[in-house]
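The passage that follows is intended for readers who have already worked through the single-chain material. We present the inputs for a multi-component assembly, then the predicted structure in tokenized form, and finally a short commentary. You are encouraged to pause after the input and sketch how you expect the pieces to fit together before reading on.
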Amino acid sequence: MPATACSATPLSCTIRRCGRKSRPGSVTGMRIVQLELNMDAAGTDTLMDWGSAWPTICDWIDSDPDLAARSIIDTGYRYLMASPPRAFRYFPRDRYHDLAADIMLFMVRDDFAVIRRYRDRGRSFLGWFRTAANNRAIDIYRHERPNLMVVLEPDLDSPTSDSEYSDVAERVREAIDSLRNPLCTTLLVWRLVHEYTNKEIAVALGWSASRNAEVGNIYRNCRLGLIRRLAAMGIGPSALIN
Amino acid sequence: MKHTRPGSGVDDERNDALKRILSAAIARAPVASTSIPEAAIRAYLDGRATAEQKNEIRRAMTSSRDVADEILSHFQARQDLDDSRLQRRMAAVQVPIEDLIARMKERSERVASNGIVHSGVLIRPAQWMWQPYAGCSLDMTA
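Having made your guess, compare it with the prediction:
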């Protein structure tokens, strides 16, 4: 049974690690030719390979590390520039090439230490790569601007010592819970706290990105509903702002 | 009739306030489980999740931005694979491949000559078992 299958019961699932030669015999001369051809196609065919749960490079990083490094850097760099992860938005456009270079070196350095952390769990390698690249960009941003961390990740876990503020927060939660549309909590938090765009919210909901206007309409209604409910509870803008 | 809209400054201020209060409110909400069975995640990504699975995952995405970002990345990667224009955009990118390979080798040699072993991995503050550089930790109790 192929080890990709984590769709069966979890306990029967074998999880392959990238570079563990768990698919012996798959690295052949034919594969080498194929990869070279793929690289000629500007990384796009290789990108389709990355759409699988077990891309060819997972076999290659042990059997032919030089070729694997070239393939990973070439495809990953092109992909990051063509479809930048969301954290790139925190940087000016003229930094994108530097970011892509930094991220790709990070991926392949120290004998592919990062890539080797990839586990085949039946999801696409490309999704994992995109997440890792996004997180690396956030790490770079934080390193460069430690004082702005709050912009990227509001502190959700630290309770305030201010009991009044705590009381307001509790009532706000009740107000959110009372909103009729069950998507309101999700939309309000994703828009205001996670700072997702309407298009990103549509995608994260599993909808088509073209439903962004619909997301915008629902969000506006939720926000308005929340403000009205808060006002009815006597929580006005001043309580919100102070 | 022309409507008068509040100045953007007022709106921004109120958004900031809402953001802060929402952050505080969800911090006091019962913490959603961030250890989600892999099967539920894949079902969500494949658009065949049950209502209960959808709710569970969206709650986790609301509690944890790391979880939300990772789910979003998977969806976006899938959209990219279906995007016929991406190929053209990728082909147009100039990759400084030789320079990057040289920098990679230079680092390897430096590390080898210094006898320093680096993990090469920045582990992010964990909110969830589903670590970005490590893939998820399958919930074996599911």
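Commentary: Residues 1-13, 22-38, 149-161 of chain A have pLDDT under 50 and may be disordered. Residues 10-146 of chain A form one domain. How closely did your sketch match?
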